[in-house]
Amino acid sequence: MPRNRTEQPVMxxxxxxxxxxxxxxxxxxxxxxxxxxxxxxxxWDIDEARxxxxxxxxxxxxxxxxxxxxxxxxxxxxxxxxxxxxRAAVQRTRAELGEPDVLINNAGxxxxxxxxxxxxxxxxxxxxxxxALAPMWIAREVLPAMIADRSRxxxxxxxxxxxxxxxNPRMSVYASSxxxxxxxxxxxxxxxxxxGHGHIAVTTFCPSYIxxxxxxxxxxxxxxxxxxxxxxxxxAWRGMLRGTPMVLRPxxxxxxxxxxxxxxxxxxxxxxxxxxxxxxxxxQFVGRG
Length: 289
Known about the structure:
Layout: H1 2-11, E1 15-19, H2 24-35, E2 40-45, H3 48-59, H4 62-65, E3 72-77, H5 83-97, E4 102-105, H6 120-148, E5 154-159, H7 172-194, E6 200-207, H8 229-242, E7 246-249, H9 251-262, H10 265-275
Helix pairs in contact: 2-8, 5-6, 6-7
């Protein structure tokens, strides 16, 4: 019970912006925001039909049925790989819903292949734009208002990946995008704290494989089960509300990081490849298709 009293005010009455919100984990974040009393929710996605359907459902959900004010939910179609489109979407969100109190950078793509098989534009550049640059662009647009408004706690949840903590074959571009996100997210957290903006908490979520379809065919390394989206979202959400700096799931992600940190590179290659089977986890990857 004490945990709910400290966490719930973050979401109740908040304006929430979620990218990649029409399906998978993004949809689950949106449902949690509505359930926990968010006043307004911006569903950013490139899939207009799915985003509109989810927005309509959340507007007429349990809160409306029980007579409570349902959240003001808007589906906003945006290609986050386009910086100008991001800027326009922020302006529309601001005009229709107000300044975001909570930002969930969830949108992401993966291309599983050997590096030299990646297309420079549709694989390399697009992955970096969506996974690494878009979260920075969005945060840069909304942070000034977050910093200025100290009337309520603010949250930024950046969905990174365990791939950003350990190198892995057939994930070079994806891993580099998530390494970039982790470095930026952690640096942003320290900057906000150092400059006295303690009402804004930044949480970086680093999960291993999740059964959303995005990593179809991938195999979890030793002691690392494929997580359900519900399990992953629950961990990320709790960490965000608490303002936990970094959330790593499952526990074996921390173990692998510890081994990698203390072992010589060649020794880790042997253990990571033969024992943990990290290096073969993407061998059967097919993706969402």
